Every structure is written in C-alpha cells, then in structure tokens.
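FAQ

Q: What does a record look like?
A: Structure on top, sequence underneath. For example:
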C-alpha cells in the first residue's frame, strides 16, 4: 500500500500481518501462519464438539457450549473471508491474558490463602481433549489462549479494515456535499455569462463525479460483502442470545463469580461489536442523504435555468439513501441495532420458557 493516506492504515497493516492476512506479500512465513492459525481454529472446534460425544449435557450447558462454538465459527468465517475476499493487536492479547488470569485464580488463591484441599480448576470454555484435564491444564489453557488471541486479532483486523472502507466512503460523500454547497457562490453569479457558465459547469461536473463515486463504492461494499454480512449477522444474533441466556442462568444462583464475570464481559463485547457495525452503516446513510439537504439549502433558485433543472436531478438521486445491506433484507443502522437487540431478547425469552417447560415436565415425571 503506497498512497498519501498510508499512515491511517498502519494499524490495519500490523493486525493483518500478525495473522497472515496482509494482502501485499506471498512469503513462506505467511503460508505457515495461515496453516497454523487454521489448524488452531479447527482443532479447538473439534475439542468443543467432542463434549457432546462423551457427556450428557443439560440445556444450560448446551447453551454455553454453543455460545463458544458460534464464536469459533465467526472466527473461522472472518479469517477465511479475509483470505478469499482480499482481491474484491492488541485486543486479542488483552482478552487472552484475561482468560489466563481468570483460569489461574485457583492456583493464585491456593498460594495466597491455602485450604485443606486444592480449589477446583476452571476453564472458561467447555472442551474435551480425551485426556486428564487437571494434569494437562496449562497445555489446554495455552491452546485456549492461542485460539482467543488469533480469533480476536482476526476480528479486529477485518473489522477495522471494513470500517476504514466505510469511513473513506463517508468522506467522499462529505466532499461531494461540500462541492455542491459551493457551486452557487454569489461571487460567481456576478461574473460575466461565459465565465460564469464555464465555472458552473466545472464545479457541477466535479460534484456529480464525486457523488457517483461515493454511490458506486457503497454499492461495491454491499455487493462484495453482502453474504458475509448476512452470515455474521445470523451468527452474531445467535451468539448474543446464548450469551444472555447463560448470563441469566449463572446470575440466579450467584455461586459462580468467574462465570458471571466472563459472561458479562462476553455480552459487552457482543453489544459493542454489533453497535459499531450498525453505527458505521448509519454514517453511510447520514452522509448520503446529507447531500439532498445541502443541495436544497443552497441558493439554487438564483442559478441559471439550465443549472436549476440539473439540480433537481441531483436532489432526486440524493434523496435515495445509500446503505450497507446484509443479504438484501437488513440495513446496517441504529434502527437495525435496536431490531437486533429486540430479536436477541425475544430468542432468550423463548429459550428460557422452553427450559422452564422442560424442568416442569421432569418434576412431574
């Protein structure tokens, strides 16, 4: 990447290089990174699914397992999307270290406040390695850390790159709006007819060209990532619902503080990620429709008749908002964020009612 705004993409470059997704390079190290990280994702997913083979799981435990299985699927989808869609570091370390600290609390407390017996070990994610988990606890913990680290870096890298695309699109809309606003300067309208017409033509062409570029870029972003948006949207709503369901499950007895802390952080990260995605979508809508308001508020009525007619076409086209659409059915916006939250809560209520019915049936039996 070699252009004037390169410094604004340094963070994206660092994050993408860390997980082997930086598109400008085909070194052997990059290939090794891809194979290594793909192996981590797939191996961890298999270890999660192994639990269903060897244990009888209650609905609450199934919800917790699925909560992390879906997150793993999101990591895999994001990572492979970064590989397949190339042509058309820090948050991971923090979260990974947080998991290690929470999982090591038992050892820390045993050293500071020893009891007659060792405290039970705690892993944030239910997995099955077909080995003695107490004996190989730290090996499992390192595998979990690598999974979380690579997954979070992948999410951050792809998300920041997409946000950079959207902000660039918003900037083009803003520049187009600025140029339209300054077409009708009073100083130009006081010039001679020939000079005035030439300047008006030039300014109008530049403004319309930028507006067309902005609209085309918004369409490209939608067409290129519509399927990815829809898949991630589906998984995101499901994961959020399972997370909230698990939160209510651990909140009721209040006997597992570590689970409550982890689940709360998990829900906050879900909400933050979904909100950011819809917020940048709202930015596209606001900047695209702002061109209509800007054009309407200019002194277009003082312009020559031919320019007034062209201005009507500009207002007609700019009255149609540009959006980031997922699967042709969902527009990223703040209203969309509210709908997603309402949908997630509805699913949680359904799951809780289903669980209550099952518990009542078991009591009757």
């Amino acid at each position: 990447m070699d252009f004037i705004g390169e410094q604004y993409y340094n963070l994206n470059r660092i994050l993408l290089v860390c997980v082997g997704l930086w598109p400008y390079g085909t070194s052997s190290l990059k290939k090794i990174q891809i194979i290594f990280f793909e192996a981590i994702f797939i191996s961890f997913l298999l270890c999660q699914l192994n639990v269903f083979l060897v244990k009888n799981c209650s609905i609450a435990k199934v919800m917790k397992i699925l909560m992390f299985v879906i997150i793993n699927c999101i990591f895999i989808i994001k990572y492979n999307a970064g590989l397949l869609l190339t042509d058309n570091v820090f948050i991971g370390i923090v979260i990974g270290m947080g998991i290690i600290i929470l999982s090591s609390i038992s050892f820390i407390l045993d050293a500071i406040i020893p009891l007659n017996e060792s405290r039970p070990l705690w892993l944030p994610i239910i997995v099955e390695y077909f080995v003695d988990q107490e004996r190989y606890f730290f090996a499992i913990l390192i595998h979990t850390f690598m999974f979380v680290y690579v997954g979070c870096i992948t999410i951050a890298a792809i998300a920041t790159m997409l946000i950079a695309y959207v902000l660039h699109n918003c900037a083009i809309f803003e520049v187009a709006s600025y140029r339209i606003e300054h077409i009708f300067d009073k100083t130009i309208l006081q010039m001679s007819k020939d000079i005035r017409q030439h300047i008006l033509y030039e300014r109008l062409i530049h403004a319309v060209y930028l507006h067309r570029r902005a609209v085309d870029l918004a369409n490209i972003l939608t067409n290129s990532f519509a399927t990815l948006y829809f898949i991630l949207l589906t998984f995101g709503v499901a994961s959020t619902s399972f997370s909230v369901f698990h939160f209510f499950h651990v909140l009721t007895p209040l006997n597992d503080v570590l689970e409550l802390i982890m689940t709360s952080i998990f829900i906050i990260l879900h909400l933050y990620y979904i909100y950011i995605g819809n917020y940048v979508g709202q930015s596209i809508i606001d900047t695209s429709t702002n061109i209509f308001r800007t054009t309407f508020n200019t002194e277009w009525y003082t312009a020559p008749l031919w320019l007034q007619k062209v201005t009507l076409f500009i207002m007609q086209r700019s009255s149609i908002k540009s959006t980031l659409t997922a699967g042709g059915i969902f527009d990223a916006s703040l209203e969309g964020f509210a709908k997603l939250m309402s949908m997630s809560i509805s699913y949680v209520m359904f799951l809780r009612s289903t669980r209550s019915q099952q518990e009542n049936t078991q009591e009757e039996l």
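Q: Is there anything notable about this one?
A: Strands lie at 325-326, 330-331.
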